[in-house]
Structure formats: C-alpha cells, structure tokens
Amino acid sequence: MSIKNGFRIPFVFLLGLLLTPLILACTTDDHNWTDQDRKASDHYYNTQRANREASRQINKAGNRFSPQEKASIRALTLYALTEAQAIDDAFLDKVHPNFKTHFRGEFQAALEMALHNLDSPDYNTAKKSTELFSNFVDWYNENRPDIHMPDLKH
User: Fold this and answer.
1) Residue 31 belongs to what domain range?
2) What is the pLDDT at residue 130?
3) Residue 8, strand partner residues
4) Is the pLDDT of residue 99 over 80?
5) Which of 19, 24, 87, 137 has the most other CB atoms within 10 Å of its CB?
6) Cα distance between residue 132 and residue 113, in whole Å
7) What is the maximum alpha-carbon separation in the chain?
8) Distance CA 89, CA 118 (A)
9) Alpha helix (H) ranges present in 27-121?
10) For residue 25, what is the enclosing H or E element?
11) Bridge partners of 147?
12) Residues 56-79: what's their mean pLDDT?
C-alpha cells in the first residue's frame, strides 16, 4: 500500500523494531512488581511483538499488499492496539512517571492511526502516525535509564 510521495505506512512499524530491544534492556529484578503489574507487562510485550510481526509482514509485502497480507497486518495491528489498551495506567505510571503520557498519546495513538490508515489510506494520517511513533521512540531513548519493567522471567 503506497502513500503519495513514497511515504508508506511501514515506516511506523519499522520504528517498532527499534523499540523492542530497548525495552528488553530496561527490565529490572526489582521484587516490588505485583501479579497485576506482571500481567500488564505481558500486555506490553504482546503489543510490541504484534507490532514487530506486522512490521515484518509489511516489509516482506513491499509496496502492495495482497488481500490476505492486508488482513494479517490489520489483525496484528488491531491485536497490538487491543493489548496496548489493556495495560493498566497505574502500571505505566510505575514504569516511569511520564511513560503513560507518551505511551498513550504517542505509541497507542500511532497504532490507532496506523489501523485507520490500513482501512482508509491517507497521507496525512500516515505521516502523523509516523511522527507520533517517532516522538515516542525519541522520548523513550532519552529516558531509557529511568524506565523500568518487571523481569521477563515470570
């Protein structure tokens, strides 16, 4: 699916590939995480994995998606969004005081726009989605030392 001026939806998902390794580097062995926090963490990692798989499929498909590819990418993006929405705000606040603001307002909003853009391709929506996602990645990278997630060994 191409967007005018060569701008493609896949760029949003490419940024997702950059984020996952950074998240994994920020896990902590802190034992103050509750079972509810660990469930929220599972939702967080699920949204990242689904986003990464959607990106992989988009990159494989290239400029045009078959109906089956589009359906798969849409399902993954919807799943990523559903998992993002399932994350408790209290958990996001525990991860970092400003994580909720950036996660909801940038990462989650970018997923919403990407999903919308899969259904109704629009250059401005694609561009805004990419900008929001890029803003989240930039903020995350700047604040990485202060971002803490439960250990993945649960």
Assistant:
1) 4-150
2) 84
3) 2
4) yes
5) 87
6) 10
7) 50
8) 27
9) 35-61, 67-85, 89-95, 99-102, 109-119
10) helix 10-25
11) none
12) 91
